[in-house]
Specification:
ATP binding, 4-stranded antiparallel beta sheet, elongated, AAA+_ATPase, 6-stranded mixed beta sheet, alpha/beta, ABC transporter, 30% strand, 35% helix, 2 domains, Rossmann fold, binds adenosine-5'-triphosphate, 305 residues, Alpha-Beta Plaits
Length: 305
């Protein structure tokens, strides 16, 4: 079953096309990474899913409900870490958490939740005095209170130190174990890569690709960088380029960098051997999500120019 489904979802602000014919499906229990550069429409999509913003055309459904009509019911089952949230003046961290629990109508142990996010000692301080990292931990504590069916995290690691990031990643893993679906919007690609099952790449309001990170890598074609140091560079080294699996070769002294298909390392090393070059050392590196992301968004920008 799909927890989130959109069909040609479009949102215009005057002449700005913030979300453009978006077809999105997020399955129950998965961690879906929603990736896109600044201004690509991530927050607008989320606001539409939560019923804060109405679509210009197309439809959205969350838990099978229309957010434009049943936004409140959707929000009661959803924990949200919004992008750029303002805290209530004069309220303590505890006040914020208690309010969240009450307004979503869930059961949660307030002290345990504060402790889990390292906020128990500061719980009775006015939260507008919190550091950015503490504020973000408070937002995570509020969003995850009472094990919601859906967690929407919009840039959840903003302001977090490495410990905070680890707590956030742990939160995502625990949420999934308890059956929560997680919608994780970010341009912090390394964090998406470590927790998400599938990612959607958004650019200028449109979804360029949706798939698992591995499939996106193989769609990119030559996705492995093989770095080899050889005892000598053969004069006919360019013949490597004739191998189907090889996309590009760069030579720096006795070091070669070969961009090739994921399973072609041995073919390349054997070919070098046949050319009379003995590999002294080699290492491989797969394309990172960052490169996949750049490849999709820059191709699309090039096409638009
Ligand atoms: N209330 C609004 N009024 C007018 N334009 C808006 C409004 N909200 C968003 N936009 C525009 O819609 C586009 C998409 O913005 P959105 O905030 O959804 O992107 P985003 O991917 O979440 O960006 P970021 O990563 O910077 O948060 C941008 O061009 C933005 O300026």
């Amino acid at each position: 079953m799909n927890i989130i489904e959109t069909d040609l979802l479009t949102k215009r602000y005057g002449r700005t096309l913030a979300v453009d014919s978006l077809d999105l499906s997020v399955r129950e229990g998965e961690v879906f990474g929603f990736l896109g550069p600044n201004g690509s429409g991530k927050s607008t999509t989320i606001d539409t899913l939560l019923g804060f913003v109405y679509p210009s055309s197309g439809t959205a459904s969350v838990f099978g409900m229309d957010p434009a009509e049943d936004g409140k019911a959707i929000r009661q089952r959803t924990g949200v870490v919004p992008d750029g949230c303002e805290l209530m003046s004069g309220w303590t961290g505890r006040d914020h958490l208690e309010f969240e629990i009450e307004s979503r109508g869930v059961e949660a142990d307030v002290d345990a939740q504060l402790e889990r996010f390292g906020l128990l000692e500061d719980a009775d301080r006015v939260a507008t005095g919190y550091s950015r990292g503490m504020t973000q931990r408070l937002l995570l504590a509020m969003a995850s209170a009472g094990d919601p069916d859906l967690l929407i995290l919009d840039e959840p690691s903003t302001g977090l130190d490495p410990n905070g990031v680890a707590v956030m990643q742990e939160l995502v893993r625990e949420a999934v174990e308890s059956g929560t679906t997680v919608f994780f919007s970010s341009h912090q690609l390394s964090q998406v890569e470590s927790v998400c099952d599938r990612v959607g790449i958004l650019h200028e309001g449109a979804l360029l690709a949706t798939d698992s990170i591995d499939s996106l890598r193989s769609t990119m074609g030559a996705t492995t960088y093989l770095r080899v140091s050889v005892d000598r560079v053969p004069s006919d080294v360019d013949s490597l380029q004739e191998l189907d699996a090889v996309d590009d070769i760069r030579i720096d002294g006795r070091n070669l960098q070969v961009q090739c298909d994921g399973d072609a390392q041995l073919t390349v090393l054997n070919h070098l051997d046949q050319l009379g070059a003995t590999p002294r050392h080699f290492e491989t590196e797969r394309a990172s999500l960052q490169e996949i992301f750049r490849s999709y968004t820059s191709e699309s920008t090039a096409g638009a120019d």
